[in-house]
Amino acid sequence: MTLRTASVTALFAAGALFGVTACSSSVPLAPQASLFARLGGMENLTAVADEVVSKVSIDPRSRRTFEGVNLARLKASVASHLCSVSGGPCKYEGDSMALAHRGMALTVEELQVMGEHVDRALIGRGVARKEREELEAILDKLSGEVLNK
Ligand code: HEM
């Protein structure tokens, strides 16, 4: 997790350097498309949320907290959250990550299982490694709140 965060930080640092080089030339830079757009927009994020919630809620390593949860509602809420954290136009209206997961005593292992399913679902939708890593870095940053630490 630390390694991945470090490599993403390195990527941003490299991006900043390239930015400086590009700015010193006379060619204007095309604005970078939002991560939301590069992930394939709402169509992909809805499909990813559907798949991840379906898989995590039946995987024996992670299903324990899903008993009695309205999965259709959860899928819609997770899609809106993914849209919002990736710079999309959605206004996420659910609970904060700390509140949503309060009392679940989630573990790092359960987070990793979810990470596996997120990665698999993104690959299945044709999302490239760079965009997968960017989204996963955003989710990594939320893990402290999700674990209520
Ligand atoms: C960075 C990691 C995670 C993110 C960003 C995330 C995101 C979310 C979101 C957006 C909601 C909906 C909250 C609402 O509608 O108010 C939610 C609820 C939920 N999450 Fe997570 N989650 C993460 C990790 C996990 C993990 C690892 C598990 C279990 C293995 C989990 C289990 C649940 C459950 C069971 C709910 C439903 C709570 C309820 O409706 O009572 N989450 N999560």
Structural features, described:
The chain is mainly α. The protein has 2 domains: 1-31; 33-146, Globins (Globin-like), CATH 1.10.490.10. The chain is built from 7 helices and no strands. It has helices at 2-24, 35-38, 41-56, 71-85, 97-100, 108-124, 129-146. The longest helix has 23 residues, at 2-24. 17% of the residues are buried. Mean pLDDT is 87; it is low at 5-25. Protoporphyrin IX containing FE binds next to helix 4, helix 5, helix 6 and helix 7.
User: Structural class, from secondary structure content?
Assistant: mainly alpha
Give a count of the beta strands, DSSP E runs of length 2 or more.
Answer: 0
What is the name of the CATH topology of the largest domain? Globin-like
Q: How far apart, in Å, are the first and last alpha carbons?
A: 16 Å
Global Rg: 17 Å
Q: How many DSSP helices?
A: 7
Tally of domains: 2
What proportion of the residues form beta strands (DSSP E)?
under 5%
| Average pLDDT, all residues | 87
What ranges have pLDDT less than 50 throughout 5 or more consecutive residues?
5-25
CATH architectural group of the largest domain: Orthogonal Bundle
Bound molecules: protoporphyrin IX containing FE
Order of helices and strands: HHHHHHH
The CATH homologous superfamily of the largest domain is termed Globins
| Name of the level-1 CATH class of the largest domain | Mainly Alpha
Q: Characterize the largest beta sheet: strand count, sense, and whether it forms a barrel.
A: none
**Helix residue percentage:** 55-70%
Shape: globular
